[in-house]
Design a protein that fits this description.
Blueprint lengths: L1 E8 L5 E8 L2 H11 L2 E7 L4 H4 L3 H16 L4 H11 L6 H12 L4 H5 L8 H13 L2 H52 L9 H15 L1 H20 L1 H12 L2 H24 L4 H10 L4 H15 L4 H6 L6 H13 L2 H58 L1
Antiparallel strand pairs: 1-2, 1-3
């Protein structure tokens, strides 16, 4: 989709500047007309949406600053104006300027934020709308900042855990390519005309093949990555991959705990912000990032609509951890669902960190052992004929 910037006349007659996402300018104009916006000018952004978006640490900082200023008693417009002065020169400065203009023109903060879906998703805007409705916007924004911080920490924790194995794997490929591309060819003349054992013949043949078709070999790697990414983006491919992971005992535990940690943290934050249970379930489902488990929550939300408890609706699924279902049942029975969701998230967070540490502790020596076997096999393939030559010379 393309990001379109537009200028319009607000409800109070003031000029506003904002943006909207649409496939074409015609669709953008139609969507704005349906909103009742009196459009005066519209143009497509020449910059990619993701580059304009306020994400990660910048979004956390913005949310925290806005919460603190509102808590200090400043009106929303003055708070945004104060933040806007600090963000001058930043690539998302225009977003804050637009928020100020829309609020001055009579829009609410949540309505203004919906003009920038790349920065403020449905969850964020719904939380802000709930805070505006109950008059606790500063509290809701503070909870949002805490939620976003924890999500960033979890993402960073998983990324950090994968860095070392990735570096080891790339180093192993580099060493392997160097041996097969440069070292082995220099040894071929030494053993020319001699009868070689099976291992040495295989290594020399592999080296010759890779040198003869190196361009195709190099091309296979990005093509393979592209193919995997395309398959992953498709519903069929992602569904098959997710089902495969859920069939692996150790991987299944890591995946389900990571997904339900994100779900329980999100649901807890939404309910604390005043969003209804059914609406909160629908929004929490969107941030899970796992189609099969999202369907589980969708079925659970339908059960809640029909009058069932959330815990009993989720208990029917084999993918929902028993601990979560039991703790939700206790929370519902005692009327403390929100604190119980927070406790579930904390338990899964600690357990996930522990299991990630254990997995990395096993994975790192496994990669080193694999590297040793491969490189050792290549070296052995070179040394065995040399031993034969030495014996022949000695004789």
């Amino acid at each position: 989709m393309t990001l379109f910037y537009y200028k319009a006349i607000g409800e109070t007659g003031g000029a506003i500047s904002a943006s909207i996402e649409a496939n074409t300018e015609k669709e953008a104009r139609k969507a704005l007309r349906e909103r009742g916006v009196m459009l005066t000018e519209i143009s497509a952004s020449k910059t990619r949406n993701s580059r304009l978006a306020m994400k990660g640490e910048s979004l956390v900082a913005f949310t925290s600053q806005l919460a603190q200023l509102l808590d200090a008693g400043l009106p929303i417009y003055e708070s945004l104006n104060a933040i806007e002065e600090q963000y001058r020169g930043e690539r998302y400065h225009r977003i804050i300027v637009s928020l100020c203009e829309q609020i001055r023109a009579g829009a609410s903060l949540s309505e203004a934020m919906r003009s920038f879906p790349e920065s403020f998703n449905d969850l964020y805007c719904s939380m802000v709308a709930a805070g505006e409705a109950v008059g606790g916007l500063d509290t809701v924004l503070s909870k949002l900042a805490t939620y976003l911080t924890k999500q960033l920490q979890l993402k960073s924790r998983i990324s950090t855990a994968l860095i070392y194995p990735t570096v080891l794997g790339l180093f192993a490929l580099l060493v392997l390519a160097s041996l097969l591309g440069f070292v082995i060819p220099s040894m071929e003349q030494v053993f020319e005309g001699r009868e070689l054992n099976g291992l040495t013949t295989f290594v020399f043949s592999l080296s010759a093949f890779l040198r003869a078709y190196w361009l195709y070999t190099v091309a296979i790697i990005p093509m393979g990555l592209w193919g995997f990414w395309t398959l992953w983006k498709s519903d069929w491919g992602r569904s098959r991959w997710e089902r495969l992971l859920l069939k692996m005992p150790l991987i299944r535990t890591l995946v389900t705990e990571a997904v339900f940690l994100r779900f329980s943290r999100t649901l807890c934050t939404l309910l604390e912000g005043g969003v209804s249970l059914v609406e909160a379930l629908k929004m929490s489902q969107k941030v899970m990032g796992h189609k099969i488990l999202e369907k589980v929550i969708e079925d659970g939300a339908e059960g809640v609509v029909r009058g069932k408890n959330l815990s009993s609706s989720l208990l029917a699924s084999p993918y929902v951890p028993k601990l979560m279902s039991r703790m939700l049942a206790i929370g519902e029975d005692s009327g403390n669902l929100v604190p119980m969701l927070a406790k579930v998230a904390d338990i899964y967070e600690m357990d996930l960190e522990k299991k990630l540490d254990q997995a990395m502790a096993l994975l790192q020596p496994a990669i080193l052992m694999f590297m040793g076997l491969v490189i050792g096999g290549i070296l052995l393939a070179v040394l065995l004929p040399m031993t034969d030559v030495s014996s022949f010379s000695a004789y």
